[in-house]
Amino acid sequence: MNELHDASPYQSATTAEQFAAHLAAVRARIAAACARVGRDSGSVRLLPVSKTVTAERIRLAVAGGCTELGENKVQEALEKSIALADLPLRWVIIGHLQRNKAKFVARFASEFQALDSLELAAILQQKLQDENRTLRVLVQVNTSGEASKFGLEPATVASFIRELPAFPRLEVRGLMTLAILDGNEARVRRCFQRLRELREQLRTQIRAEGLIGIEMNELSMGMSGDFEIAIEEGATIVRVGQAIFGPRALPDSHYWPEPAAH
User: Whole-angstrom Cα distance, residue 74 to residue 94?
Assistant: First the structure.
């Protein structure tokens, strides 16, 4: 084992029974976080994140109870979807999408959580029309203000949302963010608070302007290290990878490329 693997608080799951146990443990933590703030645990959707996980291990995860999977990289997700086509899996793309790969998302994904440009929306609209499909989407917002993260600046989201009814193949359902990677809980929590507050402002805008086909019900925020804080601040979707599948050999920065790669 490498040093990062040894230092990880997470245990690898290698059997269906271990996956079932990990899922149950995460759901118990979700329920406890909900209870602390008076929420129904059924209001939070657990999205297991399977980036870097092999198709063989995913089969075990499905046997243990996974029914949908989040992936950062489209090519990796597409290959897995083909290899696992016999399973009733729902695929969710949660990472930055290069425009030349939009055709793949339109072909197989059920949901895309990182919409951040009108150009990408237009390309997805055309590719979805070609495939005669629709796609649930969330708008990615950069709530931490870090240059290393994708997503719209909070102040620009309202005008962005106003343009989205022009793309009826995109079923806009809410917002997504990545919190700052910081040991200071208050700074992490503030990222989630910003997204919730923005969602409320957008709901008012949608009602006032009668925007068609736009909903702001979902807040996708929180990962293995901070999902309980996210739930306390209103998350409706938490994206959990390592707490279910086990530690990864590379840091998160490897899977969230610099914006220069746009």
Answer: 9
